[in-house]
Design a protein that fits this description.
Helix content is about 75%, strand content about 0%. The chain is mainly α and about 280 residues long. It has a single domain (about 5-205), classed as ABC transporter involved in vitamin B12 uptake, BtuC.
Length: about 280
């Protein structure tokens, strides 16, 4: 495997973790989040800062994961009383607050970000395999979560919060749980990203990145696991296949999103299900 192929595999793995992490919040529990890139950034900045202090890779990844998850729970607490469009606007605001904060902090590099991040200690192939292993673990976890009693409870909350309350489900607890798990996994993706890129800039975690993550979820099928895995691979590889696709990436993503919402609102997973069901 060449260094170029290893880099592509790494990006696919990181994007897959991001998309699946948002799917837990949006697809499983029905909470619209338009600021998911902020938690990706929180994990990245936490891991990058600690790595510059000489902390080992496993601990930086753990710290990035925990920090993003804890802040995700705090954000979830502030969002418990809002739903639907209001929740979307609230989470979008979190993304802008994050960017505004890191751009003003000199100890985080300000507008220039953090550069000179120490190497992971692994060659590109080995690190790509580490990312693939992490993505595979997240896939296995989300499949288990979807089929577990907690996954069924998430479904009930997503379908009708009021009805869920009437049968004794503590809706607030499960919404916070979804936020905590989803944002923690986004933090893990951020930690993995810093050792791949060796530099982080605030713009890497902007609103456009949040929409790109959401696009992968919607096109794959909210609530699906394998549909999102397929859409993440396709949408990540598309710019690499064609230079023109790379130049018009946002335009293509937007057009695909519109087409999916018009002709298959439940994404690729729903399209396949309809085609294969007698």
């Amino acid at each position: 495997m060449s260094a170029y192929v290893a880099s592509i595999v790494s990006v696919v793995g990181i994007n897959m973790i991001l998309a699946l992490s948002l799917n837990i919040i949006t697809g499983f529990c029905g909470q619209v989040s338009l600021g998911h890139a902020a938690f990706y950034g929180i994990g990245a900045y936490t891991a990058a800062y600690l790595s510059k202090l000489g902390v080992a890779l496993p601990l930086t990844l753990l710290a990035g994961t925990i920090t993003a998850g804890l802040i995700g729970v705090v954000v979830g607490l502030t969002s418990l009383r809002v739903r639907h469009d209001f929740l979307a606007v609230t989470t979008m605001g979190i993304g802008f607050v994050f960017l505004g904060f890191v751009r003003k902090q000199k100890w985080l590099g300000g507008e220039l970000g953090i550069s000179g991040i120490p190497a992971s200690g692994l060659d590109p192939l080995a690190y790509a395999l580490l990312i693939v292993g992490a993505a595979a673990a997240v896939i296995a976890f989300t499949v288990w979560l979807k089929r577990s009693w907690m996954g069924f409870t998430f479904d009930a909350v997503a379908d009708d919060e009021d009805a869920a309350r009437t049968v004794g489900i503590n809706v607030s607890t499960y919404k916070l749980t979804a936020f905590g798990i989803g944002t923690a996994l986004a933090g893990l993706a951020g930690g993995l990203y810093i050792y791949f890129a060796r530099i982080i800039l605030p713009d890497t975690f902007d609103f456009v990145q949040s929409i790109a993550i959401l696009t992968m979820v919607v096109i794959g099928g909210t609530g699906s696991v394998w549909g999102i895995v397929a859409s993440t691979i396709a949408l990540t590889l598309l710019p690499e296949v064609s230079r023109a696709a790379s130049d018009y990436r946002l335009l293509i993503f937007g057009a695909m999103l519109m087409l999916v919402m018009r002709f298959s609102p439940d994404g690729l997973a729903g399209l396949v299900r309809r085609r294969t069901t007698p």
